[in-house]
Amino acid sequence: MAEEKKPEAPAAAPPKPPPGPPAPPPPKNPGMVTATIDGREVVAKPGTTVIEAAKALGIEIPYYCYHKRLSIAANCRMCLVEMSNAPGGKLMPACQMPISEGVAVKTETPRVKDQQRATLEFLLLNHPVDCAICDQAGECKLQDYYMKYDRQPSRLDVPKVTKGKRVVLGPMVVLDQERCILCTRCVRFMREIAKEPQLGVAERGNESFITTFPGQPLDSKYSGNVVDICPVGALTSADFRFRGRVWFMSAARSVCTGCARGCNTFLDYLNDTTYRYRPRENDAVNQEWMCDEGRVSYKYLNADRALLSREGRGAQAKVLAREVAVERAAAELAPHARAGSLAVLLSPLASLEDLLAAATVAKEALGVAEVFVGGRRDGWQDAFLKRADENPNRKGLELVAQALGLAVRPFGDLTAAVAAGKVRAVWAVGTEVPDPAAAAALEGAEVLVAQSYDDGPVARQATVLLAAAPHSESDGTFVNFEGRAQRFELAYFPRGDSRPHWLLASELGRALGLSYRFATARDVFVELGPRLGTALGDFRWDSLPSTRRRPGIVPLAAGTVDGRLPGYRDRVPPETSEDARRALARTT
Amino acid sequence: MPYPIENRPADLRERMYFPEIIRGIGVLTKHFLRNLFLTRDKNPDVLERRRGELWSDNATLQYPEERAPYPPGYRGLHRLVPREDGKPRCVACYMCATACPAQCIYIEAGEYPDDPIEKYPVKFVIDELRCIVCGFCVEACPKDAIRMDSGEHTPPSYERGAQIWDEKRLLRGPPISYQYDPWLRRGSPSIPADKLEEMRARAKPFPTVATDEYAQTPGFSVRALAQEAKERAARPK
């Protein structure tokens, strides 16, 4: 029958074109797409996804696998919404569907809500619910969405699928395959952003899991980012693992000091300990990524810090109050300044405010015409984020020296000058030097006034050591290698008797007869910043972008009897021994 | 027993002062003589003792040999509940420290290399001087790892430092295991196979409702105390 009929069709009268759908009305806003989401009109560029358009309206569509900087997988099914142009009235993934002219999107209907609940039940089916030992607890999207969209007990009555609980993927990342919801964000990140496809999905169905290729660890320099983008607790940081709970910690807007890129970070801290860096979004600098070296570069903020000022080298060392130590330093430096045998060593790790204050004191009170530059030695570089120069503020140092008319000379010249006996006194603002072995040459200087974060090779040779506070303990600015000035904020007050460089430098200046008096880093910038002229472009000191601030705990006002700080529920600082706390606890 | 106090102006005799002094000395002497010469009810159930009657008006407890029982609901000092292999049930999730309004709990987490639950408290310290014994930590614990079921006071000490209890002092009392505990479900290299079978057989189903049996250690039952008190009240005087 069918074969007979087929040839007949062309023989019949010329067919009319079938009545197609009516021509679509012309777009409401030419060049843009106009649609409605939950009855509210949204105008967006063509190609905008529904999820982004809804976000612009302030309507939240839940998602796990979607990430705006990664390709779209649409595999978590959490963002399904009703769209009027869906074929057969199906629910459509909002992360994948571009918004089109005249479409009505509904995100609040019972059908969508039921789908969200069902999706969550499915994702949680084999989830071990071990939030008690999970580092993601507190910032986990499974927890958040369960409380918001599901709130039902599990109906599973057979044993859950068990997989690897503690798979060490690489030096930075530990994987828990049971917690994974297989959104493949990490796989896509490694393929598309890090350009090192080291992760993949193995097996099928509910047995599938994320893994590396056999024999190849996840050793990319950017592997730490997969921990951040993992929406659940499957990928955890080997460095931060079990060290504390995220809800105790507060976050300060900061800048990574690992290299000259100056990736924007959140500095997570509790009391006066920094626990981790997390990348903060800045499209112009680091998007929202960080390298692994930068991630672990916070450690110098906590360990081996110099907390007390002292005078004398080696066995003659004597601890002094900061005010006294500053007076001594000024008294030791002044004769050498008059004799012209004084050199000033500035560190590109110090902030712009530190360097402004120090260079001003060096020029106006000590009368030097050149500064030597210390700083860490160069490291590796790649085309993505990491710069070879591992100092956050070398550009800032150059700008300051230029503005004040000081010549900049490398550290090698200083050791040569000390060895030759031309320089007999050194004022070091920051003791990071490219070659710790060459630092021994500084022992030849009669006077070494060092402002130092740590008790390193240079600080040990100081005749006067002034304990300095790093960027976690002060406000300030770093200028990155492109000349972009970036603010960071104080996380906690300086530890012990340490103070920021700018304060020590201005106190030293006052002891030497200058009249600068600064209460805050902002005062330094307001008073000395104009000398930089237009070098910083349209930078404004108060322009730190506001973010949703995450408050940690508020510790109780009174101290505890065992010498711990009030509310101090995390690790005891390493310098506090059990015996010391017992001794504090004794009443007699 | 509370009794009403009449708030009336003193009458003439009271304002004269000395008669009242003598009367007070009389009362004191009466009690002194009664305590010295008369008997006292030695019923071991101290709440059942007769008092206010002619020959035994003496309600004094010979503490510490005799002690008044605590009212039902008394919980006592907290303890860290051990598993049957002696390790703490605690997984260092910091829920108790989060809930604690006195901020008296200090935890430091560590990692077992081989246990099915990798996280455990390296340090778990409760400052008993700060603790207000509110029991929020017990409520907050998702693993039934901290309980206030010992029925004991904090023992007194001459040193403040001795009131800081660490995990070695806190980890005590009868062990608890539930059927769904990971070390029973998955086994653990630190538990031999035969012991594991025994532990599995002995494990309780996980309680969905807090009951007396699960909330209290044997030997100190709130229900038993409540029952006793009820019977005592019902008994004819």
Describe the structure using short key phrases:
heterodimer, A: 588 residues, alpha/beta, eight-stranded mixed sheet, 14 helices, elongated, disordered C terminus, B: 237 residues, alpha+beta, three-stranded antiparallel sheet, two-stranded antiparallel sheet, 5 strands, 9% strand
- What level of helicity do the residues of chain B show? 25-40%
Number of strands of chain B: 5
Radius of gyration of chain B: 26 Å
The coarse overall form of chain A would be elongated
Overall pLDDT of chain A = 88
Q: What is the subunit organization of this protein?
A: heterodimer
Largest sheet of chain B: 3 strands, antiparallel
Which regions of chain A are unreliable across 5 or more consecutive residues at pLDDT < 50? Answer: 557-588
Largest sheet of chain A: 8 strands, mixed
Structural class of chain B: alpha+beta
The fraction of residues assigned to DSSP E strands of chain A is 15-25%
List how many beta strands of chain A DSSP finds: 23
In short:
The complex is a heterodimer of chains A (588) and B (237). Chain A has 14 helices and 23 strands.
Please provide a written account of the structure.
- By secondary structure, chain A is α/β, with parallel strands linked by helices.
- Chain A has 14 helices and 23 strands.
- Chain B has 237 residues and is α+β, with helices and mostly antiparallel strands.
- Chain B has helices at 12-16, 18-37, 95-99, 136-140, 167-170, 182-185, 193-202, 212-215, 222-234; strands spanning 79-80, 105-111, 119-127, 146-147, 164-165.
- In chain B, strands 2-3-5 form a 3-stranded antiparallel β-sheet. Chain B has a two-stranded antiparallel sheet with strand order 1-4.
- In chain B, β2 and β3 form a beta hairpin.
- Chain B is elongated, with a radius of gyration of 26 Å.
- Mean pLDDT of chain B is 82; it is low at 210-219.
- Classes of the chains: A alpha/beta (588), B alpha+beta (237).
- At the A-B interface, α14 of A face α3, β2 and β3 of B.
